[in-house]
Amino acid sequence: MQRELSNMRNFLEKLRLENKSIFEEQHQKDVALKNIIEKIKELKEKLLESTDKSKSSEKRAKQLEEMLNEEERYASQMNLNQQRAMHCSFMENQKLLELKNEEKLFSMQLKASKAVMSKLDTKQRNIERTLQGLKESLYAICYQLETTGARVAHMEGAQAERECSAELAEQENRLKEVCGRHAARVALLERHGARLHDDMRRLARDLETKNAEFQSRLKTSMLNVSGGEKEVCASREEWRRLRVEEALTRLRVAHATRALAGLDRTHYTLDERRLQLDAAMKERLVEIGARRDMFGVQKRALVEECGKLRGEIREREQRVHQLIKRHDIFIASLGKDESGQQLSVTFFKIKFAAERAELRERGAQLDAEIVKRERDVSALEATMRVVHAAHAHFMAHSAPLDQDGPEITELNDLTKQYYERRDTLKQVQTQVARLEEQVADAGAHLTTLADKYKQLTARQSEAENQLESLKEHAQRQENRLQNAHDVITLNLKRAKKLFDDVDEWRIFKLSMYNRNYSEAAHTALQGVQETCAGVREARAHLAVLLCGEEVRRNLPPHNTRLHSYLDRIIASESAATLGTPPAVEESVFSESMTSSRSGVSMASGYTKRLSVFRRTLAPKVGEQSIADDIPDQARRSTVSLRVINLGIREPQLTESADICTRSRAFH
């Protein structure tokens, strides 16, 4: 059976492949038909062009020649297509014959399988009959044994049974052995019969499934055969149409040959040409009419086939709509859930599965709990039995005590001690509760201290970070100051070249020292004022200290900026007023934001005079860079040479003497 089934599978696989190839060929034929239709459209267009009377005779002749050449090519191609179609029809007939032969083989195999199934059924019935006979014979033997034993016991009596006990025992054992063999044989036959019955059921199921599969395959093969027949009919019609077209092309070829023979003549009249064209047009009109009739027949056949297909499609659509409506009715009959959504079969399957799983888990938990409770109950019952026995033994063997006996006195003393100790325990518990409250308060206080410690640690880390940043800032400021000092030293060296007299150089240095001292004093006063800005008493004390004569004595009289700043600190204690910058008119040095790009200070005209002096000095020294480097140097340097008086003007005699004495005292 398995071999036959494998052979049938192979045959069906071959049939599928052949059907696939047939479908592909049909697709190719459809494509060829589309090409032919396009060709017909082109020919119609050419016919309209040939019938156009607006063209000359020469153009028409050329068009006719082109059409004849195309028809010749088309005729050769049609011959090839005709041969191919004949070959395809022959192959299709051969395949149809093979399919019919395979159908016969399938029917024969089906009949053989039915015969095998009937034989198996008869064998099964025979086995069942033999099994039933063996069961009846076994029952008869058992019944005979029982009746024989009863008769022997009744006839011989108890005494004879005692005398012949050995023989009876031997016979009984022998009969038991025989009965056991029969029982084993019967069991073996029953098992064999059950196995055969199972095999028969399995074979019957397999045969039913194979029969259904064969029937479906047979139906598929029949459908394929019917489709092949239809394709053969279509190919025959195509072949006939091709034959008609071939005959028409032959007519065209004959006409073309006659036309060519007529063209060989060198002399012809216009009337003969007109007659030839009329004859050609009539023949072409006859051909067009034949083509139109043929296409009308094909169109009617295609319309009929389309109507059949539409009917089948409508039937299938009705069937699909019926199934959809049945499904919708079934789903609507299920109802809706709590959220208002439509229920489905899948929803109920999932719900029932979840409920079963939940009930199963709940049942397992209840079973385990019941087993545990049963063990606890059995243990309590055993304990109660032991306690009851002890109590009964105690009540049976003990007498009531005397009220004035030592035991009662001792019991009263113990009761009094118990109450005293209980009071003491309550006092201790109260103390413990109080201590626990204190411990809780201490824990809360410890928590707050820990939080404060964390905050202080965070502040310390922030302060350390700020300190590091301030140190870095101070280092940068020191570097900047060092750079400024280097620039000043360089400027001093360059300025020293400008002065020929030592006294003028000393005056210049004194003015620089005076300027640095004024700036430092101003910065120190600003720092002290900012330090005392938050405390009113400190601001007042600072104002009192600055009012002293020693402070005024140590300040240079010409430094109006510093004097004005001291006056503002003394006059007002407001931090906002103290923080305002001084006016430009009162400042000795110009601010960096009021400095122009020319290097000239906007505060006074002394730097202008210095610039004029440098320009006059440059041609004497022979260095033009002294006069040209002033603007660039003023932009790069943080401390420019913005000095009030560099000794450029001619001082009075008394003032020069005082300055000289001061410079000597300074040095």
From TrEMBL:
Listed GO CC annotations: axoneme; extracellular region
Protein name in UniProt: Coiled-coil domain-containing protein 39
Coiled-coil regions, chain positions: 33-81, 425-487
Swiss-Prot/TrEMBL keywords: Coiled coil
UniProt-listed Pfam families: CCDC39
Its biological purpose: Required for assembly of dynein regulatory complex (DRC) and inner dynein arm (IDA) complexes, which are responsible for ciliary beat regulation, thereby playing a central role in motility in cilia and flagella. Probably acts together with CCDC40 to form a molecular ruler that determines the 96 nanometer (nm) repeat length and arrangements of components in cilia and flagella. Not required for outer dynein arm complexes assembly.
Keyword Coiled coil: yes
GO biological process assignments: cilium-dependent cell motility; epithelial cilium movement involved in determination of left/right asymmetry; inner dynein arm assembly
Family as reported in the entry's similarity comment: Belongs to the CCDC39 family.
